[in-house]
């Protein structure tokens, strides 16, 4: 039994990475975590080069990931919300799943999945996108977990004065950045517990197969 956890956040060690890892921590069995940060994964070109053999012909880091995806029994996919949807790195990753679907290819159909969403304010939006992708790929989503993470405005140095930033938008003008208002997964213990419980459930479901 192998569970592959993939975080699409370009920010290593931040909320999406940690929450995906917490789901994996709950799994009793073999797990592997992969961050897409720094990986070269281009968008699908729609070239149809994968029609004959269900193998994408673009030479980038998706080739190595392909093997791991096929070998996994379940996928835990996490993505941050960028502008109301999952970020483009995660989207490129998913677009490349086009290689699996031709001529009723069945290399990923029937796997189990867990969706992990993170955002400054609305983490349910990337979860919705991930759930859609699972459906398109015939992966059964057994559940989702979300958490709020710190927008870059908390650390960019201009968060207190910038009128376009999330501090101004969320808390109003004149707000001072303090620890108390800074989102932190460590303050969302119920989300960590939920992530681990989902991991346990995922492991149990796989054992029953
Ligand atoms: C380009 C960009 C766009 C963003 N857009 C949104 C947004 O529309 N809604 C939201 O709630 N958070 C938004 N955020 C905040 C991120 O979702 C938040 O910082 C989250 O913690 C990122 O995940 P990470 O900490 O794992 O990197 C945005 C962040 C960036 C960098």
From TrEMBL:
Stored Pfam families: FMN_red
Entry's Gene Ontology molecular function annotations: oxidoreductase activity
Flavoprotein keyword on record: yes
Location of the NADPH-dependent FMN reductase-like domain: 1-121
Keyword hit for Flavoprotein: yes
SUPFAM superfamilies: Flavoproteins
Top-level taxon of the source organism: Bacteria
Keywords from the named record: Flavoprotein, FMN
InterPro entries attached to this UniProt entry: Flavoprotein-like_sf, FMN_Rdtase-like_dom, ISF_SsuE-like
PANTHER family, A to Z: IRON-SULFUR FLAVOPROTEIN MJ1083, NAD(P)H-DEPENDENT FMN-CONTAINING OXIDOREDUCTASE YWQN-RELATED
Protein's name in the database: NADPH-dependent FMN reductase
């Amino acid at each position: 039994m192998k569970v592959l956890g993939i975080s699409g956040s370009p920010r290593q060690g931040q909320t999406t990475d940690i929450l995906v890892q917490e789901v994996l921590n709950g799994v009793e069995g073999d797990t592997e975590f992969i961050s897409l940060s720094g990986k070269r994964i281009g968008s699908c070109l729609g070239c149809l080069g994968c029609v004959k053999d269900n193998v994408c012909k673009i030479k980038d880091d998706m080739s190595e990931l392909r093997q791991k995806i096929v070998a996994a029994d379940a996928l835990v996919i996490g993505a941050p919300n960028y502008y109301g949807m999952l970020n483009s790195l995660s989207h490129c990753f998913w677009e490349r799943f086009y290689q699996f679907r031709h001529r009723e290819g069945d290399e990923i159909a029937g796997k189990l999945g867990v969706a992990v969403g993170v955002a400054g304010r609305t983490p349910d939006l990337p979860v919705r996108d991930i759930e859609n992708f699972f459906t398109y790929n015939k992966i059964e989503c057994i559940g989702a977990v979300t958490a709020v993470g710190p927008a870059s405005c908390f650390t960019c140095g201009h968060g207190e004065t910038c009128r376009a930033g999330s501090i101004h938008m969320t808390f109003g003008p004149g707000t001072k950045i303090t620890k108390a208002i800074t989102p932190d997964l460590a303050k969302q213990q119920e989300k960590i517990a939920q992530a681990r419980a989902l991991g346990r459930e995922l492991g149990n479901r796989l054992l029953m197969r």
